[in-house]
Amino acid sequence: MEISSKENTHFFSNNTVLPVDRSSFKSESSASKEKQSCCGGIKIFLGALSFVYFAKALSGSYLKSTITQIERRFDIPSSLVGVIDGSFEIGNLLIIILVSYFGAKLHRPRIIGAGCLIMSAGTFLIAMPQFFMGRYRYERFPSTINSTVSISPCLQDKSQTPLSALEKSQAKINAGCEKEAGSSMWIYVLLGNLLRGIGETPIQPLGIAYIDDYAVEENAALYIGCVQTVAIIGPIFGFLLGSLCAKLYVDIGFVDLDSITISPKDVQWVGAWWLGYLIAGVISVLAGIPFWFLPKHLPKPESRKDSSTSSEHCKFIIEENKDQCTSAWQQAKLAEMAKFLPSLKNLFGNPVYILYLCASIIQFNSLIGMVTYKPKYIEQQYGQSSSKTNFVIGLINIPAVAFGIFSGGLIMKKFGIGVLGAAKLSLGSSFFGYLLLLSLFAMGCENSDVAGLTVSYHRTRPMSDYKPALFSECNSGCSCSKDDWDPICGEDGVTYISACLAGCRASSGTGKSTVFFNCSCVGTSESSQSSSAVVGPCQKGNECPKMFLYFLIISVITSYTLSVGGTPGYILLLRCIKPHLKSFALGIYTLAIRVLAGIPAPVYFGVAIDTTCLKWGSKRCGGRGACRLYDSSALRYVYLGLTLVLGTVSIFFSTAVLWVLRKRSSPQDETLSANGERGACGTKSRKDNFLNSDQLIQSAYWPEKETRL
After folding, report:
1. What family name appears in the similarity comment (predicted)?
2. Domain range summary for the chain, segments of one domain joined by +
3. Among 231, 280, 306, 434, which residue's Cβ finds the most Cβ atoms within 10 Å?
4. Homologous superfamily of 39-138+184-299 in CATH?
């Protein structure tokens, strides 16, 4: 209003000098300038907000792409990684109420800018442990490292190994133990992600509200749709960035890469996970800069000035009436607070809302758990590298989700689908999506042949206890440790946990080109001539690449099918709530999804996945590290089974929603009539503009939820 007052002053000062015709021309010119400045201001804000949405979606999806890298770098189980992943939602919940309430009364663009700085600080904090932990050490036998000392893998007698080498190795372990024992550096990753959640909080509620307040009414839907479209692009770049960083070794720039004896497909490989967080942090800082220069208020468009509410008029009234209006506004707010409990009772008394809320909570548990551990599943089940896994998810799965969301809205608009039709479409997409998911049980790979774990040294499967099976007659004369993980591939196609357990007594070469000879356990069932092995595990079976291709095809179709039902389901939610309870209902819905799905799902999925581990790594100072080998069949049944069970339960709730709607609907019209007492759905008169308003709210939710995952 400072702009308006200045323009009025300028108008009256010019009016004393210029003729009436000139003054009229002047007022029209100033009005057109005001309109141009309004449009220009809102478009600048739109561009800045779109970039922020891109930045937060990129950093969120990049975190998903580095789940396995973080697990290996910090030697932690999947359940703990799930806690780290859920900390984002915890940070978001800590201040969402404060931001939503007080943010609208303060300088909204600057609050968003401050949120970007906090988000970038959290992203930088996640990467910081890399610079304090020292170099990454993976388990390797000394002969595979560039060394002039020739050591026999099968240490039949410790006198075979030079005393200086043993002492030096033990001294290094003892020196590093004191440092590592007190460094639970994964806590910094958790705190950083928590900080990311806090910083992200004001972006959506304040940004979308700002556009809705100052954009021309007919353009608001288009503007917010543009923001959400850019948000969908963010996860694509996030996973592609994860693919690029996973190719680079974790200590790139600090070590000689020629001395690295593991490849990106090795389960001990850790990529440059920290590099992507530095890039994402810089992008978040750049995204927040424009908001510090944007005004608190923009001139309202002429078409929206007349439709302002009484509380908005209070901003423009003269000083002597201001106290009276403020008092009336405060009384109105007190009246609203007094209606809180009745509103809550009314909302939870709506069976459609409660059933749909339960269906959504269970379905999001299924989706969040599935997407969080999808990279790990692909790596372990199909033997793919982290780089290829992230590339496939970013380039194929995420676009399929985006296209599914768009298709759902397009179908509803083209066929004029009402509330009952939306419920059918949502249920149908969930049913067929999880039905397709069922076929993935047949598209897995068998366990790799690992001596002592999945097969015995005589190529038969062990009975029950795996640990004693690590030792056999062929390696009984060797002084081996059962805790080591330094896999080699024998000529018989079997992977051995270490050269010592394979009974190898000689080696030649260094680094990746090391070859082991005279391995007493290799080829015992066929020929004594096959007694050599090379560094690294054996490849999965010949059928595995074909199964991986089938998995990708079904996975993309499943992602698309499930996403089609997102828009209709959300419209169903909005249409079956009384108009004055809509905002409250959406708040309860979002809160329930975050608390009951976003936080617990990664944790219990991680705990379930940990139960399928066959071989745990060991930390340098003792204790269990990250899992080195999973039971492929058990992992497939646990991962897909848990996802499918949750999805099936959500389908039952969705069926109950459809049954309640059918019970309330009339045979002549699928669109339910309005019923104020029972909180039923809206009438046909509201059906024409649902794509302009409520589908807009859907766009603000589903792309964020699905693509962030």
Report:
1. Belongs to the organo anion transporter (TC 2.A.60) family.
2. 39-138+184-299, 343-443+543-662, 449-538
3. 280
4. MFS general substrate transporter like domains (1.20.1250.20)
